[in-house]
Amino acid sequence: MGPLLETKLHVPRRRRALIARPRLSDALSRGAESGLTLVSAPAGFGKTTLLAEWSAGAPADGRSIAWLALDQRDNDPALFWTYLLTALATAAPGVGEVALALLHPPQPPIEAVLTTLLNDLVALPDDVVLVLDDYHVIDSREVRDGMTFLLDHLPAQLHLVIAGRADPALSLARLRGRGELAEIRAAELRFTPDEAAAYLNGAMGLALTAQDVAALEERTEGWIAALQLAALSMRGRDDIAGFIAGFAGDDRYIVDYLAEEVLQRQPGPVARFLLETSILNRLSGPLCDAVTGQAGGSARLEALERANLFLVPLDDRRRWYRYHHLFADVLQAHLHDEEPDIVPELHRRASAWHEQSGEQSEAIRHAMAGGDLGRAADLVELAIPATRQGRQEATLRRWLEALPDELIRTRPVLSNGYAGSLLVRGEVEGVETRLRDAESWLGTTTGDPQAAQSPSGAMVVADEDAFRRLPGAVAVHRAGQARMLGDVAGTMSHARRALDLVEQDDHVGRGAAAALLGLAHWTLGDLTEAHRWYTEGMASLDRAGYLSDVVGCAMALADIRVAQGRLREALSTYEWGLQVATGHGPIALRGAADMHVGISERHAERNELDTAEAHLVTARELGEHAGLPRNQYRSRVAMARLRQAGGDLVGALDLLDEAERLYTSDFFPEVQPIPAIRARVWLAQRRTGDALAWARERGLSPTDDLSYLHEYEHITLARALLAQHAAERAGPSIDEATELLERLLRAAEEGTRTGSVIEILVLQALAHQARGDGPAALAALHRAVELAEPDGYVRIFVDEGPPMAALLKAAAKQRTTPRHVRRLLAAVENTAGSTPVDQDLIEPLSDRELDVLRLLGTDLDGPDIARHLGVSLHTVRSHTKRIYTKLDVNTRRAAVRRAEELGLMSRTRGR
Amino acid sequence: MNRPPDRYRLRVDGHLDNHWSAWFGDLTLTRESDGTTSLSGVVADQAQLHGLLVKVRDLGVTLISVEAIEPRPDV
Question: Does the global pTM surpass 0.80?
Answer without folding.
Answer: no
